[in-house]
Amino acid sequence: MRLSGTRISFLLLLLVKVILAKIGDPYRILSITRNAQNPEVKKAYKKLAKEWHPDKNSSPEAEAKFIEINHAYELLMDPDRRQLYDRTGQTEDQPNFRKQHDYSSFKRFETFDDIFSNFGGGRGGGGGFRFNFREGDGVNIFKKQSITFKAYMNSVVELTKKQPYLILFYSDWCIACAHIEPIWRRLAEELEPINFGLATVHAGRETELASKLGVKNVPYIIMLLDGHPYHYTEASLSMVSTLDFIRRKFPHKLVQRITDENLDTFLSGWVDNKVRVLIFGRLDIIRLRYLTLGWEFRERAVIGYVQMERSDTDSIRARYGVSNKVDTLLLFLEDSFTPAASVAMTDLPYPTMKDIIEANKYLLLPRLSSQAVFDALCPVESMRSRRRLCVVLVSEDNPIHEPPRAALREYAIHDHYREKERVRYTYIFKEKQVEFINALTEGSGAPVEVNHHIVIIWRKDRYHLKYEWLEGGWKVNPDHHNNSRQTLKETIHRLLHSNEPMPYETIVQELFDEHAQGIVWRIINKLASVQDYLRENLTQDDVLPAVSILATILFIVAGGYLMSYLVKLEEGSVEGGIKGFMKGEAKQSPQLRIHELRGETYNGLIRMLKPGCRTIVMLCDGESKSKLMPKYHKACWPYRKSSYRNCTFVSLIGNKRMNTYMRLTLLCESTPRDLKTAPNYIEDIICL
């Protein structure tokens, strides 16, 4: 294959950018003084990085300038490298006469070795212009840590439940990928000893994985915690910015800061079935190794950090006799005054801290709060001669049930079988593990009330177990407690040293996970994850279209709901009108109005009555009207819908109205009554 001179020049330019990148004066590059502090360096870097970013600056020098700015920022933010430069003027990127950089790792340029060798006598010649690339350790770190999509799904995702992972996506012919190789190597040296997993993915070959994680370009870094990806979105990559990114992605209170004020609350929180760990350090920040330690043991331990230089922690150091010259780790079980394990060193290594917590990650009397705890404390053993017993006290989540638990805890401390791991002492909340308790009470030997009773369990397999209830229960009162202790001791000894079968067996389901998040918290966490994803993946150019699409969807949904509501209202109105028309009655409830018989109402109420119609007239005066009208209204109410009955009244006030009364009485009776008896007569009529 022949290459033109222009193409060879272009390839040489790319090669020179990778190999001969140098840093000038970092203070001059960032336009700051030599006395500038870290905040000033960071501020200047952000300003220049935004100005010279290749995606935003079309200048031909933008890429080289951006790399130069990144180098300067990384050097000045590293205290050791900055001190070296201030003292000697030397950087790691500037070779000196005693150190020769080995670029043999860039084997991908070996294709052009033949081309350049033609200028000086071929591959075997001793002169001429040629590159002698050998297989080295440079870019091999990418190949060494490379994973596939299958490995990611089957292994890495599961590992991230206890081990954070940092994944770098790279590709061939990626100048920036070759540039960050030294940074990635330093990250590996820093993070791998503190239980951090690092992996690389070739984006060109593992396109499915890149698409799944939302990788748009290379190099690209993603951090995995419990299978959830967090995207590195800084404009450039450096050691300092990467470590800051990692620190920010851990849960906020994974490692709590402890002072005199919250110490007792922290240590007394073991009722959540987790041990307490106090780490005493001299640094103001919480070291990354403590965060990864807290992540690995977050299900079994709660870690607190005591910064010894603070004045509000002096009493804590005095309480436990901790020296401020070394870092110290104290592990507490139920006793908050005496640590169960401790270690003090100038620099606490991760394996040492891990070994201490691993050996003491369960309380003296732990609770069977999940299937994972049950499997760890009560392992399966099919052989009867080697069976392991699990002594379970049935209790409730109530402070009044603490004395029986405290008594069993005190008994377990002095039991030599526990030290040999043949017997584990635990307790269980019956109101939270209902199915498990029901399976144990199906047998005929179960007590009527299981509270404060002990059941001894032997697991033959995951779901099949044999058991025996302790006779007499677990008594804590002084008169019977010694008998309970003796009975328990004899029962355990008998079951361990004889081939006597246990009397009952049952099938149990998996225990309910008491530490699992409820549906509300799961929804909140899911929304928070979506928010993080959108914040990390949406650029400023994507915000306006996304908001526009969201607003359009909301407008369509709201408009559709409004139209549906109006249609339902109209349908209800039409349907009601049809029903009213078919039934021949109004929609409103009928009302009864009693009109006074006057000259203008006389024709309608009396004179123009149709045959068969009747008008009922109540005669009253000013005094009796207020008393009689409610009764009259009530008497006429049943006829409110009738068109053959009308109700009216006449007020007899003055001589003219009295004449009306006389005329009406003549119509009703042949002999008119005396006027003096008229009021009583009127009242009598209404009563009838």
TrEMBL record:
Tell me the domain of life: Eukaryota
| Chain's role | Plays an important role in regulating the size of autophagosomes during the formation process.
Q: What name goes with this protein?
A: DnaJ homolog subfamily C member 16
Task: Give a yes or no for keyword Signal in this entry.
Answer: yes
Q: Topology relative to the membrane, per the entry? A: Single-pass type IV membrane protein
Q: Which UniProt keywords apply?
A: Autophagy, Signal
Domain annotation Thioredoxin: ranges: 133-256
Give compartment(s).
Answer: Endoplasmic reticulum membrane
- PROSITE patterns assigned: DNAJ_1 (PS00636), DNAJ_2 (PS50076), THIOREDOXIN_2 (PS51352)
Q: What does UniProt give as GO cellular component?
A: endoplasmic reticulum membrane
All copies of the J domain together span 25-89
Q: In its UniProt record, which GO terms are filed under biological process?
A: autophagy
The residues forming the signal peptide are 1-21
- The record's principal subcellular location, in a coarse class, is endoplasmic reticulum
